[in-house]
From TrEMBL:
<keyword id="KW-0121">Carboxypeptidase</keyword>
<dbReference type="InterPro" id="IPR029058">
    <property type="entry name" value="AB_hydrolase_fold"/>
</dbReference>
<dbReference type="GO" id="GO:0005576">
    <property type="term" value="C:extracellular region"/>
</dbReference>
<dbReference type="InterPro" id="IPR018202">
    <property type="entry name" value="Ser_caboxypep_ser_AS"/>
</dbReference>
<dbReference type="InterPro" id="IPR001563">
    <property type="entry name" value="Peptidase_S10"/>
</dbReference>
<keyword id="KW-0964">Secreted</keyword>
<keyword id="KW-0732">Signal</keyword>
<comment type="function">
    <text>Probable carboxypeptidase.</text>
</comment>
<dbReference type="GO" id="GO:0004185">
    <property type="term" value="F:serine-type carboxypeptidase activity"/>
</dbReference>
<dbReference type="Pfam" id="PF00450">
    <property type="entry name" value="Peptidase_S10"/>
</dbReference>
<dbReference type="InterPro" id="IPR033124">
    <property type="entry name" value="Ser_caboxypep_his_AS"/>
</dbReference>
<keyword id="KW-0378">Hydrolase</keyword>
<keyword id="KW-0645">Protease</keyword>
<keyword id="KW-1015">Disulfide bond</keyword>
<protein>
    <recommendedName>
        <fullName>Carboxypeptidase</fullName>
        <ecNumber>3.4.16.-</ecNumber>
    </recommendedName>
</protein>
<dbReference type="GO" id="GO:0006508">
    <property type="term" value="P:proteolysis"/>
</dbReference>
<feature type="signal peptide">
    <location>
        <begin position="1"/>
        <end position="28"/>
    </location>
</feature>
Length: 460
């Protein structure tokens, strides 16, 4: 890339002007204080990055700098799934962000990931949370390709706004349908780096991710059976007459066969509406915050969900004073919601992304796949099978044999590492949203991932 001095003076002035504008807008995005916020010693920013000027479209972000030594800590992006669910409401305010709403105030999350990194949460695609498109036709055809492209543009422009993070070590993390978002974004970043190194990508971590439609979905039957949620006869018919990937495929094509209808009615009846499929150990009440994977579990029969926990995140983010503090606005919607009702192309679920993880690994970028072991939506058995198969395909030898790892004085889960670059880990007792249900163990896993070291083999 030419230096500014080598460019025509008018172009140099233009670039300098743009840089000044973006950096001044970063100051405008600084959050003075969130309503009900406890005293903190780190900076927060929130605002918009325009990803399309012709048909104005912008993605909303929330950025919490590291609690200590932010200039020495890496930059970590977090994406939630759905598709169509909010990284602000789910990730930042319910899982691994610095605060959680409680009544009219925010309480400190002592296991926030910004203890270890500068955390950037992106509401993507447009139409999710506070992100928007003024061209409403965009919402009728949202898909993986458009989402990946917009995410790439977002990052390029975010780095113009925050140039001090341009060369910082960068990690991308997320869960659920982010198993599509993140590998597809990583592929574009790797391709972009071939011309000029724009991204200092150092690793990606995927929690309970959708990587392969058939493997991930069809591991559900064994999980149900092994946890006593379905009977032997139901297990046999669920694996022989209509497996879950066939049912979902038929459901999103609006052509559910009679046999799949009967099988799913039986499975739904036996598993019961009083068990949370995202954490089979959870009691009856579930929060709508935990519904980011609704697309991964379509209902064949009417199954009302008893939400008996007040959704304090939704209440908090719908407050006008909170929206002003976040520099956020609602566009076309009267209320902020956890998950969008946009018309996302559900057939994209069937696109495998496990091969893209192979591309990332072959590029020398470490990959971690982790699973909350109480999740039946994307069970650990499918993820473990996929990672093992990818390691074999890439001819990676086992460098850390399957073993337990520890957090504090308890077993945190199990792990296996291939070629010191591809890892699989479970988080013991965790749900689909692992940082929500097992915050301390999730933080321990995250810390080891950033430091590039094996998970602890002994008590700490």
């Amino acid at each position: 890339m030419k230096s500014l001095a080598a460019l025509p003076i008018t172009l140099s002035l233009t670039l300098l002007s743009l840089s000044t504008i973006f950096q001044s807008s970063a100051l405008a995005d600084k959050i003075t204080s969130l309503p009900g916020q406890p005293t903190i010693n780190f900076q927060q920013f929130a605002g918009y990055i325009t990803v399309d000027e012709a048909k104005p479209r912008a993605l909303f972000y929330y950025f919490a700098e590291a609690e200590t030594d932010p200039v020495l800590k890496p930059l970590v992006i977090w994406l939630n799934g759905g598709p169509g669910c909010s990284s602000l409401g789910v990730g930042a305010f319910s899982e691994n962000g610095p605060f959680r709403p409680s009544g009219n105030v925010l309480v400190k999350n002592h296991y926030s990931w910004n203890r270890e990194a500068n955390m950037l949460y992106i509401e993507t695609p447009a139409g999710v949370g506070f992100s928007y498109s003024t061209d409403i036709s965009f919402y009728e055809g949202v898909d993986d390709e458009k989402t990946a492209r917009d995410n790439l543009v977002f990052l390029k422009r975010w780095f113009i706004k925050f140039p001090e993070y341009r060369t910082r070590d960068l990690f991308i993390t997320g869960e659920s349908y982010a198993g599509h978002y993140i590998p597809q974004l990583a592929e574009l970043m790797i391709e972009a780096n071939k011309g000029e190194k724009l991204f200092n990508l150092k690793g990606i971590a995927l929690g309970n991710p959708l990587l392969d439609f058939s493997t991930d979905f069809n591991s559900r039957a064994e999980f149900f059976w092994s946890h006593g949620l379905i009977s032997d006869p139901a297990y046999r018919i669920f694996t022989s007459s209509c497996n879950y990937s066939r049912y979902v495929s038929e459901y999103y094509r609006e052509n559910v066969s009679p046999i799949c209808s009967r099988v799913m009615s039986l499975v739904s009846r036996e598993t019961s509406k009083f068990v949370d499929k995202y954490d089979v150990t959870l009691d009856v009440c579930i929060s709508s915050i935990l519904m980011q994977s609704k697309a991964l579990r379509p209902m064949q029969v009417s199954e009302p969900i008893d939400v008996c926990v007040e959704d304090e995140t939704v209440n908090y983010l719908n407050r006008k004073d909170v929206q002003r503090a976040l520099h956020a606005r609602l566009s076309g919607d009267e209320t902020w919601s956890v998950c969008s009702s946009m018309n996302y192309n559900r057939l994209n679920l069937e696109i495998p992304t496990i091969s893209l993880l192979g591309l990332v690994v072959k590029s020398g970028i470490p990959v971690l796949v982790y699973s909350g072991d109480q999740d039946s939506v994307i069970p650990l058995t499918g993820s473990r099978t996929l990672v093992h198969g990818l390691a074999a395909k890439l001819h990676l030898n086992t460098t850390v044999p399957y073993r337990v790892w520890f957090e504090g004085e308890q077993v945190g889960g199990w792990t296996q590492v291939y070629g010191n670059i591809l890892s699989f880990a479970t988080i013991r007792g965790a749900s689909h949203e692992a940082p929500f249900s097992q915050p301390q163990r999730s933080l321990g896993l995250f810390r080891a991932f950033l430091q590039g070291r094996p998970l602890p083999e002994t008590f700490s």
